[in-house]
Specification:
With 163 residues, this protein is mainly alpha-helical. Helix content is 69%, strand content 0%.
Length: 163
């Protein structure tokens, strides 16, 4: 017996708040490159958080990660898929991880965006291991958080390099 997948529209997402968040406020509905569009949806969220103290920024990012495990699991269950590409809350949190302690300025936002997308797509070890072995909400979230950590490290190396 096969079950049909729900028709996903912006209107359908509004009826399911967890799925609306999982879909990155609707950005995951993009027909091509939903992960990139999900990361773009993170930019205004980061802009709102960028002036917070580091402890508050980290607390909100950790809470977004913890909530994301449940949010992404809800969407995966609704869609009947283990890791749907349209679920992009993980990209939002991964970008926030990337931008931890980043310098001010739009240039750094762009560099962080590119680095995060690079690591999220490339998936070097152990990101690839987490992507293959972990499933459900935690699996959806963890590989992007790891990509965010890698991207944050490279971003900080760029910060300390002499200009």
């Amino acid at each position: 017996m096969t079950t049909s997948r729900p028709e996903v529209s912006f209107k359908a997402l509004l009826r399911r708040p967890a799925c609306f968040l999982a879909y990155g406020f609707g950005s995951g509905l993009a027909p091509l490159a939903p992960g990139t569009f999900g990361t773009l949806a993170a930019l205004p969220l980061f802009w709102l958080m960028k002036d917070l103290s580091l402890p508050v920024y980290l607390l909100l990012t950790v809470l977004a990660f913890i909530a994301g495990i449940w949010i992404c699991q809800q969407a995966a269950d609704w869609l009947g898929s283990d890791d749907p590409s349209a679920v992009v809350w993980d990209e939002i949190v991964g970008y926030l991880v990337t931008m931890t302690a980043a310098p001010a300025g739009w240039q750094w936002m762009v560099i962080g965006f590119v680095l995060f997308r690079l690591f999220d797509i490339w998936k070097p070890w152990p990101i690839s291991l987490a992507d293959r072995k972990l499933h459900g909400g935690l699996g959806i979230m963890l590989d992007d958080v790891l990509a965010g950590i890698y991207a944050a490290i490279v971003l900080q190396v760029f910060v300390i390099l002499p200009s």
